[in-house]
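ok so dumb question maybe but i'm new to this and my supervisor (M.) told me to 'just get the structure for Peptidyl-tRNA hydrolase' and walked off. so i did the thing. is this what she meant?? sequence i used:
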Amino acid sequence: MAGFRLLVGLGNPGSEYENTRHNAGAQWIEALARMSQCSLRTEKKFFGQFGKVFIGGQECYLLIPSTYMNLSGKAVQAVCQFYKISPQEILVAHDELDIDPGTVKLKKSGGHGGHNGLKDIINKLGNNRDFGRVRIGIGHPGHASKVAGYVLTKAPSDEYQKIEQTIDESLRYLEDIVADNWSNVMNHLHSFKA
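this is what came out, is it supposed to look like this??
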């Protein structure tokens, strides 16, 4: 396998959710698109913002679902069916409560950890969890009851800047990430702290 063909950034649609913590994954794809000079356009059949880029000579599809977070799988499933993409060729960027702002981690597969976007993608892929993840740290509010409000609010500017720095840092390794050359990248990224 040559690496990842579909790069997905999770978030909620609409201006009221823009720059909220839950949209860190969508921000990752937006930053990647800017860096690659790719304009994302609304693609109704894929239920999202969609674009194509070449990364390290490989054609990749960029997707930000325009459904709400808990229906993210619908967009992923539509693109996968259309382009015959297997779960192993999907890389999902998402916000991660279990790591602090200013940190980012790569992960090969795994559960959803209560993340509704990941939950729906796993579900729509027929319970397949074997897709890659770029986990962007947003930190935890300290209590489970506070999570919903926390992820749907904007981070204070110092935290937000850390999240942005994390995104920029991870995109420096974009070719290796997409080509699945992770060992080197993980050493760098997992010790990075904005």
